Amino acid sequence: MHLLLVEDDTMLAEAVCDAARQIAWTVDHVGDAQSARLALVDHVYEAVLLDLGLPGDSGLTVLRALRGRYDVTPVLILTARGQLSERIQGLDAGADDYLVKPFQVDELWARVRAVMRRSQGKVVPVHTYGDISLDRSKRAVTRAGVRVALSAHEYRTLLALLERPGHVVTRDHLEDVVYGNTTAIESNTIAVFIHQLRRKLGEHLITTVHGQGYMIGEAKP
Asked: In this predicted model, what pLDDT tens digit does every residue of 29-83 receive, in sequence order?
């Protein structure tokens, strides 16, 4: 299990990371919203443990950005804010569960396992084109039944294209899906991801529509 912990309380974060190591789980820890957004752009996690009161910005902003990129990674909110209105706000923003501090680590792990089970039971679309298949519930891509390893950036680029087969997806939209508003983006970054996808999945899978963007499949009216 590979988790992301977004928590600015260093002592609590160390306790959670230590407890995770005891059950052979891996936890990446960041302490502010900007670092969380960058981690979620650069990596794929099995679940996110998210504090709301973070330096610089709210954890809700991180959560909304994640869901805005069509990312269905389970999110468990950890916070001292236990009011009903705040719990509703977090769940409406896309959280899968809510745990109020202070809490017992055993309950935390039980809730993580529960949100993982629920996420695996959700009906999540499997996108296919030819012999290419992308399973969003498993975050897995296969070609002719053989799994293909993609980076987090390549995966999100492919997903954005497969969600609109036959339609041009602009570079600006791809940048927003892949990066959100986390950082400055070099002008050729998306082109690099497209090149890698063609190398791994077939040169003719993605068509470049000059001056507009990229497309999978035949153009639809």
From this structure: 999 999 998 898 878 888 999 998 898 888 999 998 888 776 788 999 998 876 7
Q: Which helix H or strand E contains 148, and what residues bound it?
A: strand 146-148
- As a whole number, mean pLDDT of residues 155-174 equals 89
Residues 6+ apart with CB under 8 A from 84: none
3-state secondary structure 75-144: EEEEECCCCHHHHHHHHHCCCCEEEECCCCHHHHHHHHHHHHHHHHHCCCCEEEECCEEEECCCCEEEEC
Q: How far apart are CA 110 and CA 108, in angstroms?
A: 5
Q: What is the dihedral of CA 210, 214, 215, 219, to 10 degrees?
A: -30
pTM of the model: 0.67
**What strand order describes the sheet that includes 169-170?**
169-170, 213-216, 206-209
Q: Say how many CA atoms lie within 13 Å of 181 toward its Cβ.
A: 6
- Do 37 and 60 lie in a common domain? yes
Answer with the one of 64, 91, 121 that is the final residue of a domain. Answer: 121
pLDDT score of 121: 58
Q: Which of 61, 88, 121 is the last residue before a domain boundary?
A: 121
Count of domains observed in the chain = 2
Single-letter amino acid, residue 175: E
Mean pLDDT of 163-181: 83
Which pLDDT tens digit goes with each residue over 109-135?
999 999 888 776 555 678 899 999 998
